[in-house]
Amino acid sequence: KLTSLALQPVITPELVQGRAHLKCAYSRPSSRLPLQYVVVWSRLSTPGKKEQVQRDTTLQSFSYIEMDGVNLKLGDTVFCTVTAFTRDTPEQQSLPEESKGFYAGIKFLPESLQIAEDGKEHVLTILSTVPIACPGHDDSCKITLQLSTEDLDSQLLGPPDVALSACQVDLLQAPCSESSCAAAALTATAVTDFARDGNRISRIRAEPVGQRDLLWRAYTPKDVKVTVRDLPTGNCYSFTDPHIITFDGWRYDNYKIGTFLLCRSVSRAFEVHVRQWDCGGHRSATACNCGVAAR
């Protein structure tokens, strides 16, 4: 009887006659017997549960299935299972061998981010594991994704803690290699908000826009979760008859009258001026804060 033949099925994406397909290829064993293959395509319908979508019997060492947006949609994880049998004695079958799951759709790498309010830029790659078709002559071969950010902590009103370097990215058609058929990169930065608001969770969403193709029109890729680590904010003070405490905790007084530069950033356009006026009695000269200007 046929035992394990080491068929090792592998799923790869391919454009066939301008339509997105998946190909299940397997190694043809060096058996003298003329073999036929049964290829069963399935998709993950719920976690841990598979649903059959197509069954082929073939003499070839491969089988195709179309990403049609009906039987197979974007966002599906797809498997192919291959069984070999001899044409003369079809009851003699090899053990079925299953491919690894192939995720068909748009992926973010990394799938989640942990960043801090330190101004650093973090590269986020968006890739499509399925080939991008050109449905009409007037369309360039690309998928345009509209990007947005949202704060998942509904307790806090205000802008999300994440800023992106682009609001839209284009995934341009390219030859598929290692299950990437189109890719684009952007950067995400944590917003330095000078608020002690704790670690917050935001998400980045991507939605295809302006698509006529049914396959892409009904698809919203999975969000990227971004955890933003809150960093303590520096504080400096000038109060009453100006007692000054600097960012690093030095304390001194400035009793003079005039306009002074209280604080200036060396890395960005930010400075604070204070104006001090006489507020002392007859015995001692003292000045008090009476005006402030910030840029």
From TrEMBL:
Record-linked InterPro entries: Dev_Signal_Modulators, Ig_VWDE, VWF_type-D
The VWFD domain, residue ranges: 234-295
Gene Ontology terms, MF aspect: signaling receptor binding
Pfam family, one: Ig_VWDE
PROSITE patterns registered for this protein in UniProt: VWFD
GO cellular component terms, semicolon-separated: cell surface; extracellular region
Keyword Chloroplast: no
UniProt entry keywords in alphabetical sequence: Disulfide bond, Signal
Protein name (database record): VWDE protein
